[in-house]
Amino acid sequence: MGAAGARSIWSMVALYDTAARDVVEIKPSGDTLTMYTCGPTVYRYAHIGNLRTFLLPDLIARAFDYQGTGVRAIQNITDVGHMTDELFDRGEDRMLLAAGIENRSPEEIAAYYTDFYFRDIEAFNLRRAESYPRASDHISHMIELIVRLIERGHAYEVGGNVYYDVTSFPSYGNLSRNSLEELQQGHRNVEADPNKRHHADFLLWKAAGPKRVIHFPSPWGDGYPGWHIECSAMSLAHLGDEFDVHTGGVDLIFPHHEDEIAQSEGATGSRVVRHWVHSQHLLAEGRKMSKSAENFFDVRDLEKRGHTDPLAFRLLCLQTRYRAQFNFTFDALSGAERTLDRWRRLVADWSDAPAPSRAAGGRFEERFLRAMNADLDTPTIVALIAEVIGTADLDPADKVSLLQGWDRFLGLDLARDAGKELHLPGGASELIEQRERARASKDWSESDRLRTELSELGVEIEDTPSGPKPRITR
Q1: Domain count, the chain
Q2: Residue 330 falls inside a structural domain
Q3: Residue-range definition of the domain harbouring residue 450
Q4: Do residues 152 and 194 both lie within one domain?
Q5: Cis peptide leading into residue 255 (ω within 30°)
Q6: pLDDT per residue over 23-70, tens digit each?
Q7: Which of 84, 109, 159, 407 is the most buried (most CB within 10 A)?
Q8: Domain-embedded: residue 422
Q9: Under the phi-then-psi rule, with left for phi > 0, alpha for psi from -120 to 50, and beta for the rest, what region is 91?
Q10: How far apart are CA 278 and CA 19, in angstroms?
Q11: Reported pTM
Q12: Per-residue pLDDT tens for 88-134?
């Protein structure tokens, strides 16, 4: 079966829907897929666990795009603040903590780390969203949404604070499979907020104290929004009262996404998000990534250790399904670097081969589409690439055509070195010529010595029937 035939059969992307607890077909409600992603809180660099989470919406968008369906992707930037204890709304403001440590204003902190976030996602080859709304630009939308929730009986004000009344929303807890009774039992020993009607009620708006640096006027006095209301307001403002997919990390299922549902559906009176899709945690050296465990790495940390290609980490992520945990190690990253380097070298070597035969690669294209659409089965696709490379009855041109096509989904820049002019370091050309003369005279010890000398210059030699093929290794 040819590629076109395969696409007509395997053109429906299926994803694991957290609310449905099953893999379901994702059918866009319109001509394009609409998708919202909880983005970064810009008070520090994004770590590699964050990047793995943001890889999920990138792969979803690429899977639909590969099959001709457009995507409207929105990802927010949280630049107002972020409380560490969302459940009880008592945590410290992370933006203000960062500002105090770095001796910069909150606005400067947000601008600095937002800039680096965009640099990191470009290095990681994440497709840009259509828009990156900032929380600070949507305060009026949040206030309007809170007013609607009060009017509809879902929220109440006490002393300048506005709380969401979880008992007013009967389906609260459905996404996370929590119940109000279980939440009450699980937190009996925690000091309750006396202003709350129910222990699990959460803040929509908090009154500003006398030392609060960032605050905004509102009908309830000066204050600032709760974390959860931000995403509801921005997703509704940019995607409307219903959109197809909402993504995020599994740590956001409760309370953040549970609270989003209560807010958005409480305000609109109808379902807003059609499908919830979540990415699992990245572990580092066997433990959850954290600064205290000293296993907290960002792109700059990888570079300091000599790992200068972030796309090798992307390949490492693709070797595990997005909804399974995996353990990051530097040994595994080195292995991914070697694999990616080899794939790129083969694509470069095959790029001048005669035109491919479309029929020859059809059987592999069908298997690729089947895996991609079956809940983004990237490990199967990675294994399929190895199979294609090793298939003897497939011409090099067909192989490179398949790999370059699939790279639209994988995003590994496999054709990076194709057609590039090789610039050898000084003296390398003469050493290659000397080695060829040694090989011609069967002086194998001299040939090996020269190979070692070339390696020390950062040049690797592959001996082929058509002559030596040099490659720069650093």
Answers
A1: 3
A2: yes
A3: 428-472
A4: yes
A5: yes
A6: 999 999 999 999 999 999 898 899 999 999 999 999 999 999 999 999
A7: 109
A8: no
A9: beta
A10: 10
A11: 0.87
A12: 344 456 655 565 556 678 788 889 999 999 999 999 999 999 999 99
